[in-house]
Structure formats: structure tokens, C-alpha cells
Amino acid sequence: MQRNVVILDIDYVTYDGKPVIRLFSKDGDKNVILIDDTFQPYLYVVSDDIEDCISEIKENIDVVNVEKVVKKDFQIESEFIKVTFNHPQELAKSRDALRDLETVIQIREFDIPFYRRYLMDRDIIPMTEVVAKGDSLKKFLDLDCETQDIEIIKLTEPPTRLEEYPQDFRILSFDLEVRNPRGMPDSSVDEIIMIGVASNFGVNQVISTKTNSEDRDDFVNQVGSEKEMIEEFVKIIKENNVDIIVGYNSDNFDFPYLKERAKILEVDLDIGMDETDVKFIRRGYANAASFKGLIHVDIYLVMRRYMTLDRYTLERVYYELFGEEKIDVPGERIWEFWDNGGEELDNLFDYSLDDVISTLKIAEQTLPLNLELTRIIGQPLFDVSRMATGQQAEWFLVKQAYFDEEVVPNKQGSNFADRASAEDNEGGYVREPEKGLHENLVQFDFRSLYPSIIISKNISPDVMTLGEIDNEDEYNISPEHGIKFKKSPQGFIPSVIDKILQERFRIKREMKASTDPQQRIALDVQQQAIKRLANTMYGIYGFPRFRWYSFECAKAITSWGRQYIKSSIKKAEEYGFYTIYADTDGFYAKYKKNDGK
Which of 221, 203, 225 is nearest to 211 (CA)? Predict the structure, then answer.
């Protein structure tokens, strides 16, 4: 059979001792789970005695296959040993044993999660549409088509991507209000009094055990108990086949609290596509609430990365984005509003609904960019929305390395010396602003300064030379530090940045030529996502824990950056301008009057 489906999520399970990839997908309103048991985990081994190393691996390590392959190592074709395992757990258990073999110099790509490897190798991009061909199954492990209202397809060939990206996803925002007279809410004793929900498909309400004035009847959904409130919330998600559920600080508060209350009240939060409950998995330094096939995005985490504010409360972020004050109730008084009833209870209902409507509006403003980054990076939206911008850039490079036949470098760690070196980098040029109120200013701004420097100066570890050179004409030599980079061939990272910047310029030209307002909006989101990714590439060099960390490259970029902006300021002064403020990639200047002021 053949189906066109949109890929939402991915995981793997074990069946008959083999890893089985599950792709949680949708065909319209129908939930479809694709099953693929043909993919196996692997890593690469570096050795200076390939044949002896292959023999030693076969004799000492339980593997499926060992073969010699030719890949690129920082642009240079090299021989590697590709070692394939039956299961990701076996790969993890064998890493140390492989390192200890006498003929092994290094192992590479051993720390790429299995599901991420699958997405890259199969060129499957989450949140895009694919053509899936395979055999229909009635059951697979805990999946059951009849009881779970799903379709199961066991793939007989890899899915193929379609060019058009789906734009419309069913989004639901939610928020809890808790009666907490003792201060911080305690899930063991403090009940949930309201669950607000808002959506882009017409469901906007506050579920509660109370109601009050007739004015709120149109959005207050009164139920008989806290247990019924949670059950109604689950019912809304299931009946409306939600694709993306969003909250504000929902990783840290709403979902953990809801899970505990549901456990106490014996309610199943079985809202995953496979009817599983919420699971908390490690992402970065915190736990993230995850459901199979239902994508959870915590907008609070997204906004902390994309905005620089003094506070990141929902009220503060909403005002910054939309210039409007949202309804606010002091957290310490919520229980009083609940107990007092009357007008204060009405205000609490209004506040609860306003919270979820505000969260939904922020999500609708920010999710298009995150969806575009998901498609560019090629990793699940759940992961991308929780990645720091440097991590997003790194996984994009890992994906590009696969298609360029590059074996990616290992993480170098972040010991004290690495951190000290990174902190010692002088950074961009800054001139403190001249005090006072200024008018009639001109602004000079470099377009994509650091990415442009990386490309034009070919700044990349694979073309960097630290020793003596014979012919300086063949190198770009950084000011101040004299770090040398070959002019050719083009380094791996400059080549990647060059490609994505050219793609951005193409999109901007298309956007300028378009007369369709909706197309212009979609294209603008695409070019903004590419711009964000390109500008982050500099961070890959400057952070010790990333794979392409290079203190020398980071120093060279900023030294050229300082040179360019200082020379531009000097040139402007020759034409009668004087600078009142400069910062990294641009400056503001005023024209000198005859009196010199």
C-alpha cells in the first residue's frame, strides 16, 4: 500500500532483538505509524593498519559487519573502518572495548543517537510530507489498529520526501491554575482548579469545577470534579487530534504537576498517538515532557533563546511582542480569587483564558521559525525547540557532513584550559556610546559580517596552518595573530555557510519578486531561519564543547571583524563623519558641522 503522510515524531523500540524505528505520522486526520526494521547502527574506526584492525575487531567484538570505506576527514579522503552493530545498546557497550584494541587509534561518530542517525541517513525531515510504501499491519507490539484508531505500515522501501512543506498544524495551548494557599503549589495536596485551553481550530475554554456569572458561560466548561477536569482535557486533545501542544514553562511546571495530580486521581494521561502517558526525558540541563506523536513545545524555553529581556514572564514576553498588556492576577492571590467568588472569580476565569490565548498567539508568532529550523536542521521539532542555537548549528553541520561524505570530529570536551582560552578571545570591536541625545544619524551595518569573513577568508580547521609557510600568497593571514588559512580548497564549514547564504539570497530575491502576501510571509520566515543559523556558525568555533571548536578560528574571525569595522570608521571620518557608537558589526555616526560639533 502507499500513503502520503506528514512525519511528526520518531523513536525506536526493540523487537526480536532488533531495533525498530517508528515514525509517528498523519494523513489528514488519520494517525499513521510507519515501522522500519531495516536500519542498523554503526560507527567509524581510525587505524593506521586497516586490515589487521578489521581482523582484530572481528575476533574481539560482537558485530554485524566490518568493512573498509573511503570517507573525507576534514576534506581529505581517508580510509576508515565502518563497524555495524545489531542494536544501539550493543554499540554503546562496545565503545570502550573498541578503543582498547591495539590497532585502533580512534573511534568516530559513536555518540550520534540512533533515531537522529536514521533521519540523516534516510534523508527524512520531520514536519514534512513523505510518500510511504509498505505492508499494512493490524498490530505491532503495543500498537493495535482497532483499539487505538491508528494505521500501521511496515515499510518495504525508504520513504521519499515531497517538495511542498505542510503549513497548517493543529495547535493547542494549555495552562493550569492551582489553589495554593501555602505558597508554592504542592501537587500532593493542592488541587488544580482550572485548565485553560486555546487553539487554532476553534476550541477556547476554561475547564473548571466552578462557574460564576452568565458573562463567562460562553467559555467556562463546568465539570463535577478535578478528576473530570483532567479527563475533559484529555478528551479535548484526543477528539481534536492535536499535532502540537504548547505551554509556558510547561516542562518545569504544568506537565509535571498534571502528571502527579492525574496519578493521585487515577486518571490516564494517555494522549500520545500510541496512547502512552507523558514521559520526561533529558534535554540539556532539564527534563522535557514528551508524548509519542504529539509534539510538546515549551514556549518559555523558546523565548529565552530568541529574546533578551530582564524577565521572561508570560506578561513581559507578550507585551514585548504585541505591545499590549495582558490580564494579570498575582500568583499568591489566585487561591483567594477562587475562594472569594463573585467578581474576583470572574477575573480569575478571564485571567486563565487570557493566559492560554496569549501563549497561543506567541506560539503562532514563533513556531513558523522553529518549523523552518526543524526542516533545515532535519531533527524533530521537539528537540530543535529545546536546542541552544549553537546546538542547532552543530546538528545542521553534522547533517551536511553526512551528505558531503565527511566523518564528523569527536567532541573535544570543555576542560578548564579550553574554557579559559575561549574566554580570552577579545571578541568584536565595541566603542562606548557618546552620552547625550543625538539626531540626524547615519548607520553603517555589515551584512552577515562573521559568516562573510568565514567564507571570504576560508576560516576552517581543515585548511588552517599554524607552522611556517613557503608562499604567503596562497594563504589568508589574520591580523594581530597571524593565523594562516589556505585560500583553496574551500574549507568544510565555509562551504556549508556559503551554500546556505546563497540560498538565503535566492529566497530574498524570490520574496521581493512575489506579489502573493502569504508567500512573502512564508519566504521571510525561511530566510530569517537561515540567517539565524548562519550567524550562529561563529559560535561553533568559540565553544569548547562543540565538535568544530577551534580557538584559533574564533580569534581569527574576530580579529578580521575588528579590522573591518575600524577601517570603515576611519574611512567614514575621511568623509566628515565621526562615530558616536560602534558594536561588533556596525556603527552610528554624525556629520561634522563647520564648528566641529
Answer: 221
Distances (CA, A) of 154 to 38, 104, 138, 139: 10, 38, 10, 11
Which CATH number goes with the domain that contains 580? Answer: 3.90.1600.10
In the chain, pLDDT over 70 holds for what percent of residues? 96
b/e map of 19-52 (b: 16 or more CB within 10 Å)? bbbbbbbbeeeebbbbbbbebbbbbbbbbeeeee
Does position 308 have pLDDT exceeding 60, yes or no?
yes
Flag whether 76 is in a domain: no
| Whether residue 531 sits in one domain with residue 460 | yes
Q: What is the pairing mode between strands 150-155 and 42-46?
A: unpaired
Report if residue 107 sits inside a domain. Answer: no
Cβ-based neighbour number of residue 144 at 10 Å: 16
Model pLDDT for residues 569-583, shown as the tens digit of each residue:
889 888 888 888 888
Residues 6+ apart with CB under 8 A from 364: 171, 200
State the Cα–Cα distance between residues 81 and 202, nearest whole angstrom: 56
Q: Are residues 141 and 258 in the same domain?
A: no
Q: Is the pLDDT of residue 416 over 50?
A: no
Read off the pTM: 0.88
Please give the Cα distance from 584 to 431 (Å, whole number): 9
Q: Are residues 329 and 427 in the same domain?
A: no
| 134 plus 198 within the same structural domain | no
Please check whether residues 30 and 128 belong to one and the same domain: yes
What is the rounded distance in angstroms from the CA atom of residue 263 to the CA atom of residue 594?
A: 78
Q: Average per-residue pLDDT in the chain?
A: 90
User: What range does the domain containing 209 cover?
Assistant: 171-367
In terms of Cα–Cα distance, which of 136, 133, 262, 130 is closest to 195? 262
The answer to whether the CB of 493 falls within 8 A of the CB of 548 is yes
Chain CA centroid to CA 228, Å: 35
Question: Structural domain tally of the chain?
Answer: 3
Percent composition of the chain: helix, strand, coil (DSSP 3-state, to 5):
40, 25, 35
Any domain includes 91: no
Decide: residue 61, CB within 10 A, 0-12 exposed, 13-18 middle, 19+ buried.
middle
The mean pLDDT of 300-312, rounded to a whole number, is: 87
Q: Which three cell numbers stand for residue 413?
A: 570536551
User: Would you say residue 100 lies in a domain?
Assistant: no
β partners of residue 246: 173, 297
Match 510538546 to its residue by C-alpha cell.
Answer: 296
